[in-house]
Design goal:
Elements lengths: L1 H5 L2 H19 L9 H8 L11 H6 L5 E5 L33 E5 L9 H7 L4 E6 L1 H14 L6 E5 L6 E5 L4 E7 L4 E8 L2 E13 L1 H4 L7 E4 L9 E5 L2 E6 L10 H19 L7 E5 L33 H23 L2 E5 L2 H5 L32 H14 L1
Parallel strand pairs: 3-6, 3-9, 8-10, 9-12, 12-13
Antiparallel strand pairs: 1-2, 4-5, 5-6, 7-8, 10-11
Helix pairs in contact: 8-9
Protein name: Trichome birefringence-like N-terminal domain-containing protein
InterPro entries: TBL (IPR029962), TBL_C (IPR026057), TBL_N (IPR025846)
GO molecular function: O-acetyltransferase activity
C-alpha cells in the first residue's frame, strides 16, 4: 500500500483500469464472440417467444390470419441439411436455389404476436396421440414441414410407406406420437378415364362416395388436418347416385359446367359430413386448411409460367376478389356448417386460414429448383420450399389446436 500510495494519481488510475479489464476477460464466457442473429432476434423480439403468459387473452381474441409478413432475423428453425426427411423435390437449395431472403420473414397478425412454433412443447401437447393430414401433395408438403420441426427434438421412426410414397406414417417413440399423411386426390371417390389403354386426364367424381383411401384409418386419429383443391383444375364429370349431374372444364353440350368452386364445395361437404357422422371416430378436432394459391406468372404451368420472385408481396398488392379467395370463402362456409352440426355431437371444426398469408408469398415456391427429371422446363409454383414460408402453417396449427383443445 505504501508503494501504491507513492504512485502518481494518473498511474494509479491506469493500474485500476487494467485490473478491471483483466477480471472482465477472465470472468466472461467468450467476450470477443460477436452476437449471433439468433441471440439478436431474442434480444430485440421478445414478443415472438413461444410463451403465452399474460398475453393469453390478447392471443385468444386475435384474428391470427389477418396480418403481414415482417422481417425476421432468426429465420428458419431448421435447414435443408439438418432435416433428412425433406423430399428431394422440395429441397430447393439442393437443386441450386441461391437466394435466402425468402426465409427471413415471419407472419405477424395485426392485433397480436403469433407465438413461434416450439417443437418440444408441441410434442408434449400431442403425447400419446395420432395426427393425420388428409389431402393431396400440398397436404404432404405441410406434413413434411411439421416433421422437420419435430425432428429437432426427437428422431422419428419411419413406420410405413406405400409403394408410391403417398401414404406415410412416422412414429415418435419418446412421446408415443404418430404423424401420418392419408393421401387423396379429391376427398371423394374419383377415377381417371382410360382411353385406348392410356390415361386421358379426364376424371369421374362420385360426390356421394368418400375416398376409402383415407376413411379406413380415420377412426384412429385424434387430430385431423384436411385440405384439397389443386386436382380439381382439370376436366371432371360430377356424379351423384343418379348419374352425371355436371362437370368442370368439360365443354359438353348436354352437361352443365358448374366450375371448380362447386365441385370443391361438394367434395368438402361430403368429407366433413362423413367425419361428423363417423360413430367409431375419436377425433377431438378437425382443422380445414384453406386454399394454398399457386403463383405462376407469364403463363400457366404447362405454357412457361414461372415464379422467380425473391420477396413477399404487401397486403395492398394482393387481390381478395380472386378465384383463390373465392375457393377459400366457400371452404370457410363449409367449415361453419360442419361446426354447427358438430356442436350437437361434441366434435370441433376450425380453419387454418392460410390463403391471405400465402397470397403474399410468391417467393416461396421451388420454381425451377425442384430437380424433376421427367418434366424438364416446367416450374413448380404450387408446392413450397423446405424450409420456407409453409413453416408458418405450423405456427397457425399449434395455436389453433391450443384454442380448440383447451
Amino acid at each position: 500500500m505504501m508503494i501504491l500510495g507513492k504512485l502518481p494519481p494518473f498511474f494509479l488510475s491506469c493500474l485500476l483500469l487494467t485490473i478491471i479489464f483483466i477480471v472482465f476477460i477472465l470472468c466472461s464466457p467468450n467476450p470477443f464472440n460477436p452476437i449471433s442473429k439468433s441471440d439478436l432476434h431474442q434480444t430485440l423480439a421478445l414478443p415472438n417467444s413461444t410463451s403465452h403468459g399474460d398475453d393469453d387473452d390478447e392471443i385468444l381474441k386475435c384474428d391470427l390470419f389477418k396480418g403481414e409478413w415482417v422481417p425476421d432475423l432468426q429465420g428458419s428453425l431448421y435447414t435443408n441439411w439438418s432435416c433428412s426427411t425433406i423430399p428431394t423435390s422440395k429441397n430447393c437449395f439442393h437443386h441450386g436455389r441461391k437466394d435466402t431472403e425468402f426465409l427471413k420473414w415471419r407472419w405477424k397478425p395485426h392485433q397480436c404476436q403469433l407465438p413461434r412454433f416450439d417443437p418440444k412443447t408441441f410434442l408434449e401437447f400431442v403425447q400419446g396421440k395420432k395426427l393425420g393430414f388428409i389431402g393431396d401433395s400440398v397436404a404432404r408438403n405441410h406434413m413434411d414441414s411439421l416433421l422437420c420441426l419435430l425432428s429437432m427434438i426427437e428422431t422419428p421412426v419411419d413406420h410405413y410407406k406405400d409403394s408410391e410414397d403417398r401414404q406415410r406414417v412416422w412414429y415418435f417413440p419418446g412421446h408415443d406420437f404418430t404423424l401420418m399423411i392419408l393421401w387423396t386426390k379429391f376427398l371423394v371417390d374419383g377415377e381417371e378415364r382410360v382411353i385406348n389403354g392410356s390415361s386421358s386426364g379426364i376424371f369421374d367424381l362420385h360426390l356421394h362416395k368418400i375416398d376409402k383411401k383415407w376413411t379406413t384409418d380415420l377412426p384412429v386419429l385424434d387430430y385431423i388436418i384436411i385440405s384439397d383443391a389443386h386436382w380439381f383444375f382439370r376436366t371432371i364429370y360430377l356424379h351423384n347416385d343418379t348419374g352425371v349431374v355436371g362437370c368442370v372444364y368439360c365443354d359438353h353440350p348436354n352437361v352443365t359446367d358448374f366450375g371448380v368452386g362447386f365441385a370443391l364445395r361438394m367434395a368438402f361437404r361430403s368429407a366433413l359430413n362423413h367425419i361428423n357422422r363417423c360413430r367409431e371416430c375419436k377425433a377431438r378436432v378437425t382443422l380445414v386448411r384453406t386454399f394454398s394459391p399457386a403463383h405462376f406468372e407469364n403463363g400457366a404451368w404447362d405454357t412457361g409460367g414461372r415464379c422467380n420472385r425473391t420477396s413477399p408481396l404487401s397486403e395492398r398488392e394482393i387481390k381478395l376478389t380472386s378465384n383463390e379467395w373465392e375457393l377459400r370463402t366457400l371452404q370457410m362456409e363449409e367449415i361453419e356448417k360442419a361446426n354447427i352440426e358438430g356442436n350437437k355431437k361434441g366434435t370441433k371444426f376450425a380453419a387454418l386460414d392460410v390463403t391471405r398469408a400465402m397470397l403474399m408469398r410468391p417467393d416461396g415456391h421451388p420454381g425451377e429448383f425442384w430437380g424433376n427429371k421427367w418434366m424438364n422446363g416446367y416450374n413448380d409454383c404450387v408446392h413450397w420450399c423446405l424450409p420456407g414460408p409453409i413453416d408458418a402453417w405450423n405456427d397457425f396449427l399449434f395455436e389453433v389446436l391450443r384454442r380448440k383443445v383447451t
